[in-house]
Amino acid sequence: MCGVNMGCVCDIKKSVDEMIERVGSSVEMAIPLLQAVQSKFRYIPKEAIEHIASKTEMTETKLYGVATFYSQFRLEPVGETIIRVCHGTACHVAGAEGVTEALEKRMGIKDGETTADGKYTLESVACLGCCSLAPVVSVDGEIHAKVDRGSAVELIEEREKA
Ligand code: FES
């Protein structure tokens, strides 16, 4: 344990060792193991993949194959808050493009990126299942209805004030 910070290589290795112990090391445990890693780190660090491969029957190729096949897995770090703008048909027609543009401008990032301070990740997603409320934005899973450019920016402003 180097004690530098959470997420350093030795923290990752130690955590992964515990997960392997708990979940198992056989090939069919690839998904549960990756889920455990993501649950802990909010994404799957490459060091975790390397460590799992060195300690189990799974290869890095197999693990990357699983991690890239399933959309639930992330290979890049995410912000503390994940802002998802729905770009399904109903939301697209109702102005989702403008909502994303306004959020990109306010946060200084592009769609799919995370702010430098690690606070926010912005991403476009397919239909969130509440099309009558379009355009829809989800902030850490909380749905905001009929969002426009102005109210999208307010969602960020409110969080900054809190
Ligand atoms: S298209 Fe956006 S919620 Fe369905």
- Specify the CATH homologous superfamily of the largest domain: Glutaredoxin
Estimate nothing, just give the exact number of structural domains.
2
- Report the CATH C-level class of the largest domain: Alpha Beta
Side-by-side strand order of the widest sheet:
2-1-3-4
Mean pLDDT: 92
H/E element order: HHHHEHHEEEH
Query: What molecules are bound to this protein?
Result: FE2/S2 (inorganic) cluster
Low-confidence stretches: 1-6
Account of the protein in words:
There is one protein chain. This protein has 162 residues and is α+β, with helices and mostly antiparallel strands. It has 2 domains: 9-69; 81-161, Glutaredoxin, CATH 3.40.30.10. The protein has helices at residues 9-23, 30-41, 46-55, 60-69, 89-93, 96-107, 149-161, and strands at 81-86, 120-125, 137-139, 142-144. The model is unreliable at 1-6 (pLDDT under 50). The site of FE2/S2 (inorganic) cluster has 12 residues, from helix 5.
Name some characteristics of this structure.
162 residues; alpha+beta; Glutaredoxin; 2 domains; 4-stranded mixed sheet; 7 helices; 4 strands; 48% helix; elongated; disordered N terminus; binds FE2/S2 (inorganic) cluster
